[in-house]
Amino acid sequence: MREYSKFIDFYNICISIIKIYQEYCKDLSKAETTKYIRENLDKELLNCYYKVGEIPKEIADSIESKTTYLKLSLDNMIKNLIEHPEITINEYQNISLYIKNAEYILKKNNKNLIYFKIDNKIYQFVIKSTKVGNELFITTFHKASVKQLTKDIRRYLPIKKDSFDYEDSKYPSVT
Q1: Which end of the chain is less enclosed by CB atoms within 10 A, N or C?
Q2: In sequence order, what E strands does the chain have?
Q3: What value does the CA radius of gyration of the chain take, rounded to a whole number of Å?
Q4: Cα gap 35→33, rounded to integer Å
Q5: Which residues contact 96 (CB under 8 A, 6 or more apart)?
Q6: Is 162 exposed, middle or buried (0-12, 13-18, 19+ CB in 10 A)?
Q7: Beta bridge partners of 104
Q8: For residue 33, what are the contacts with CB-CB under 8 A and spacing of at least 6?
């Protein structure tokens, strides 16, 4: 697996790949487009990644990861760019900051759901450890809703809850 050292190079290769496949996928849904690219792109290229930063050890331990280094694979980045175009390049570049400022981290099976805010809007990304725990990846990054967060708070084990007031007063408090 190749590691990209600069996020902009990683991001640009993902955008280029999507543009190449755009014509072939113009009549497909977002999920079908992602599937088509995964089936037709070189697997070695799909496994390339960018290391977005580190997560606290207790969060990594909660999903049985042996590492605290968080990666974003080219495969997942392409999927996310297709399925969640609302996420900007600046937001991707600030993932490590969002981890540090996460208000809620919930354990869902072998994944952690991480909730945070950007300009008083709720966002979520999901991190998952590989089966043997040697690698840790972001699987998705998207806007979330209060309804989704409230449901997840009720269903999953809290690893961290740091609720505080939001301007719109719609953010749920669990403290």
Answers
A1: C
A2: 3-4, 49-54, 69-73, 104-108, 111-118, 121-129, 136-143, 157-161
A3: 17
A4: 5
A5: 52, 53, 54, 70
A6: middle
A7: 115, 161
A8: 21, 25, 82
pTM: 0.86
- Tens-digit pLDDT profile for residues 111-149: 999 999 988 899 999 999 998 989 999 999 999 999 999
Q: Parallel, antiparallel, or unpaired for β 49-54 and 3-4?
A: parallel
Copy the structure tokens of residue 167: 């301007």
Instruction: Measure the CA–CA gap between 30 and 39, rounded to whole angstroms.
Output: 14
The answer to whether the beta carbons of residues 18 and 12 sit under 8 Å apart is: no
Alpha-carbon gap, residue 9 to 156, rounded angstroms? 36
Name the residue ranges covered by the structural domains of the chain: 3-161
Q: Which amino acid is at 53?
A: G
pLDDT one-digit tens code per residue, 93-112:
999 888 888 899 999 988 99
Distance of CA 155 to the CA centre of its chain: 20
Say how far residue 24 (Cα) sits from the centre of its chain.
26
